[in-house]
Design a protein that fits this description.
The complex is a heterodimer.
Chain A lengths: L3 E4 L2 E4 L5 E7 L5 E8 L3 E10 L2 E4 L7 E2 L9 E3 L8 E8 L9 E2 L3 E5 L1
Parallel strand pairs in A: 2-11
Antiparallel strand pairs in A: 1-3, 3-8, 4-5, 4-9, 5-6, 7-8, 9-10, 9-11
Chain B lengths: L8 E5 L4 E6 L8 E7 L6 E6 L4 E2 L4 E4 L5 E6 L8 E8 L14 E6 L1
Parallel strand pairs in B: 1-9
Antiparallel strand pairs in B: 2-7, 3-4, 3-8, 5-6, 6-7, 8-9
Classes of the chains: A mainly beta, B mainly beta.
Amino acid sequence: EAQVTQNPRYLITVTGKKLTVTCSQNMNHEYMSWYRQDPGLGLRQIYYSMNVEVTDKGDVPEGYKVSRKEKRNFPLILESPSPNQTSLYFCASSLWGSSTDTQYFGPGTRLTVL
Amino acid sequence: DAKTTQPPSMDCAEGRAANLPCNHSTISGNEYVYWYRQIHSQGPQYIIHGLKNNETNEMASLIITEDRKSSTLILPHATLRDTAVYYCIVRDPYNQGGKLIFGQGTELSVKP
């Protein structure tokens, strides 16, 4: 089954404790992206990747890092999480990232930073 | 990217057609109209997209006006599982980063 998976689905952590949220897709997509969703602010793009070893900032990249060492995986790294990073995170992928591509979303990771 | 305007909420009776409107009066000629939905904090789900012509798939139909300034998503026989927030998104082909810009969407409640 074609899908985007994220782990963990739920995470409660404390300020400053490094964490990684994994994202994997099995559709051989070139493009992957991370969004965060907050009440009243909608979904906002954090980082995206057009291909292996090619990543770029989205609208809200501060406090986050990403890597794209292989096509199927696009982990989101929070080196020193803070409470304002408490949010619902979604990973997405599409074939090329163009406006005619359909983006497929993962199930989400709900992160709470205390 | 062109902005979209949707009603914040709508109700629909189960089994009836749900018609969700979207205004995108500043859309340009090469921008696509996409519809996604999000069921209770799950990942957004793609529904349908179009450029000029009406489109239909197994989930829904998309009607785009001739001037392309508005569109309507039609769920022909709404079920309780169609209760969700529906997002109308206009995509700029020259958008750097391929991002989807989600507005506030329409919260559709399908009632028995």
